[in-house]
Amino acid sequence: MKKLPTPSEIRSLFANSNPEEVWAKSSEIVRCISxxxxxxxxxxxxxxxxxxxxxxxxxxxxxxxxxxxxxHTLDVFLCAVRLAHGVHLSGLPLTDSEISLIMxxxxxxxxxxxxxxxxxxxxxxxxxxxxxxxxxxxxxRYLAEQHFPASWRxxxxxxxxxxxHMGEFPKIRFPDERVRLLGQIVATADLVGQxxxxxxxxxxxxxxxxxREAHLGNYQGMLDLLRKSKSxxxxxxxxxxxxxxxxxxxxxxxxxxxxxxxxxxxxLESLEKNMDYLSQATQLDEEGCFSMLKxxxxxxxxxxxxxxxxxx
Length: 312
Fold this sequence. Notes:
Number of domains: 1
Order of helices and strands: HHHHHHHHHHHHHH
Shape: globular
Distance between the termini: 66 Å
Number of helices: 14
Structural class: mainly alpha
Number of strands: 0
CATH topology: Catalytic domain of cyclic nucleotide phosphodiesterase 4b2b
Strand content: under 5%
CATH class: Mainly Alpha
Helix content: 55-70%
């Protein structure tokens, strides 16, 4: 009988700031799906994306967006691998190629925030509306340079478009139903992976800064975005997660049952705790609300970043 996870182990599910630790966790899970899986193509992409975040990729600046940062991509990446494992165990077995496509799509889903040399102004958040199409453009060029299968580019484009939550999933043209399933996995992981983060509520203040830079959303301030985030979640849960994405997040239970021997969905539990806490915090005024958001020193960071620039 498997040992139940400790509270520390449960918290560590959502602590994904170290790329090599995330890679090791993901690799262990993928080997459970396919013991002979060849990691080399995905590892090549992984290293390229890490280089992009750190400013080590030729022709590009470091990615500077405050919300869509490296931990965000790592959160979504590991969630996608866990979800893929759950889908596989649920009776929808995935091939090695499909596993690779899922991981590559997630790694590149926000790469469109990266700024080329000469695009140095701002944080990259000004590309919010078209960051997915920018990412697709980078993906197609990169995969051609690496001589990856041309069929992968055909699949990856709609899969990456699945993460454009301002778009409409039913209108995406998938080559077949299998790729549509892969797109659902990627889109589900993008939503659930970020919203279950233990610092998600604090990070919403950083998301406000991105929206402000992109002139998106017409929010009256950070508190206004926080207060509207609960209704955003309820709409997302109904229309996206349970609707267009067909409740695929429930497959995470298969992963945790296999991993820990418990029929629980720790992602959903964490997400719902975040939303319950958000409801409590947003009943207060701004000072009271922010005093309840204590993790990671993120509130202080966001408030400093929100200050107007000093005049020259």
